[in-house]
Amino acid sequence: MTTVLVALGVNLGIAVLKALAGVVTGSAALLAEAGHSVADTTTEALLLTALRRSGRPADRRHPFGYGKERYFWSLLAAVSIFASGALFAFVEGVRALLGGPVDEPDSWVGYAVLGLAFVLEATSWAQAMRQVRAEAAAERRPILRHLRLVDDPTAKTVLLEDSAALLGLLLAFAGIGLHQLTGIWAFDGIASLAIGVLLAVVAYIMGRTNKGLLIGRQADPTLVRAIQRRLAQTPEVESVVDLLTMLTGTDRILLCAKLDFTDSLTAAELERACMRIDGELRDAFPDLDEIFLEPVPRNDPELRARVLARYGGALDGLRG
């Protein structure tokens, strides 16, 4: 929440400054950056909505909870960045290139706004990076791997958009500076187009991440392997036939384990074993939200065929 609120305040103030500077200087790159900041502000508002709505408890209509709402609103944030940021930058770039030479009076205003915006964006970026580093350290994995596997797109979204914002500011500075130094007006339009490409790339990365989470992505393979080992060591379990996991929200995992239990167990012993295993798994892996344990024969041909089809020969499905 702190990371999103910091980014929201920063982007809202910067959007106003860039828009005023763009009107004063007539720079297409500055106007493109104003559109960029408007898109980022909309993104933060959508992320705040995601944080609020995804925390609602499960009910009759949604027995697995509302955790995936965070992915839905984050996906809309990606669409916002493309629609109100990238497309606006493309339009401004084309307009500048087709419009012919334009004088940019009071260029110092543009430089001052870009410098101030860079300082503010760097503050927001530092806050997002601190959160991402803390999360990665808690999960004991490198930052890049954490960003690839993270089940909470909020901090990742802020970090990506702030990184894009810093790069966009450098592009706008280069466009205005080269125009002023060389007198070639096309540099301003080219900078605006470059900002549009940058925002489109960020929107694509965010959209792909949230699409995978909405469809139903497997939990972290390291965690899945740990669960598989824990189940395989259970005295009543002879074999872990299949293990299915799905992220249902941030720090919320649905687990379905198909287990071949010892044939000598009575029905009552099997029931007690399942209850004990459920409790042990929850104690060992707090992120497990719903657990389903299904007794199955390991040599059933139909089940074996389904597992082989899903994992391509790796029966435990844990190699990727």
Automatic annotation (TrEMBL):
Residue ranges annotated for the Cation efflux protein transmembrane domain, each copy included: 4-211
KW Transmembrane helix (keyword) present: yes
Keyword NADP attached: no
Transmembrane segments: 71-88, 108-126, 158-178, 184-207
GO terms of molecular function: monoatomic cation transmembrane transporter activity
Keyword list, A-Z: Membrane, Transmembrane, Transmembrane helix, Transport
NCBIfam families assigned: CDF
Protein name: Cation diffusion facilitator transporter
